[in-house]
């Protein structure tokens, strides 16, 4: 069963995907949905996303009774606040485009694994999945070439305790 953190993550992801502009328009272009959406519209989108998934969450706990519906209302309010903060953050950036749920290092990944040289001459190879990658306009270099900066976004919503053994064995890096 999904955790509440999973619900927050899913709502943010679906909202971000729904706000993506058409091809050729930058995320922060005035014509982009990211720049045009109002706080009220943002909340309405989140409410629709959660209403759509609320019936499936924990076998319908959000729709089973009055207490469940109250929990859904509280979750919707929290998700709406988180979503609007995300929109506000994007508006202050120079984000050109975004990629979602991007895997790296797997056989079917577009992105290569990350190799880290260790002190003992060995190397560690990192593979995983990134929640969101923002491509940001980095201006131009000394030769006038356009540069892009990547910002890796990992949605954190859970309260999982850090387990030193899992980290040391490489099972969980965050």
Protein architecture, described:
The protein is α+β, with helices and mostly antiparallel strands and 174 residues long. Helix content is 38%, strand content 22%. The protein is built from five helices and five strands, in the order H-H-H-H-E-E-E-E-E-H. A hairpin with a 5-residue loop joins strand 2 and strand 3 (123-126). Helix 3 (39-54) crosses helix 4 (66-91). The two termini are 21 Å apart. The relative contact order is 0.14.
| Terminal-residue CA separation | 21 Å
Tell me, what's the shape?
A: flat
Q: Helical amount among residues, as a percent range? A: 25-40%
**Main beta sheet:** 3 strands, antiparallel
Q: How many DSSP E strands?
A: 5
How many alpha or pi helices?
5
**Class of secondary structure makeup:** alpha+beta
Q: Mean of the pLDDT scores?
A: 83
Strand content: 15-25%
Please mark out the parts with pLDDT under 50 across 5 or more consecutive residues, or reply none. Answer: none
Main sheet: strand order: 1-4-5
What is the C-alpha radius of gyration, as a whole number of Å?
Answer: 19 Å
**What is the element string, with H for helices and E for strands?**
HHHHEEEEEH
């Amino acid at each position: 069963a999904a955790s509440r953190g999973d619900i927050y993550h899913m709502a943010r992801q679906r909202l971000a995907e729904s706000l993506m502009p058409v091809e050729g328009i930058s995320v922060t272009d005035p014509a982009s949905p990211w720049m045009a959406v109002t706080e009220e519209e943002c909340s309405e989108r989140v409410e629709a996303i959660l209403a759509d998934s609320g019936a499936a969450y924990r076998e319908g706990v959000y729709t089973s009774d009055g207490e469940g519906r109250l929990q859904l209302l509280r979750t919707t309010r929290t998700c709406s606040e988180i979503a609007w903060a995300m929109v506000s953050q994007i508006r202050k950036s120079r984000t050109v485009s975004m990629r979602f749920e991007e895997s790296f290092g797997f056989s079917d990944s577009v992105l290569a694994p990350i190799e880290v040289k260790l002190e003992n001459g060995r190397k560690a190879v990192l593979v995983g999945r990134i929640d969101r990658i923002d491509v940001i306009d980095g201006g131009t270099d000394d030769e006038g070439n356009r540069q892009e900066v990547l910002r890796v976004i990992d949605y954190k919503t859970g309260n999982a305790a850090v387990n030193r053994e899992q980290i040391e064995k490489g099972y969980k890096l965050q």
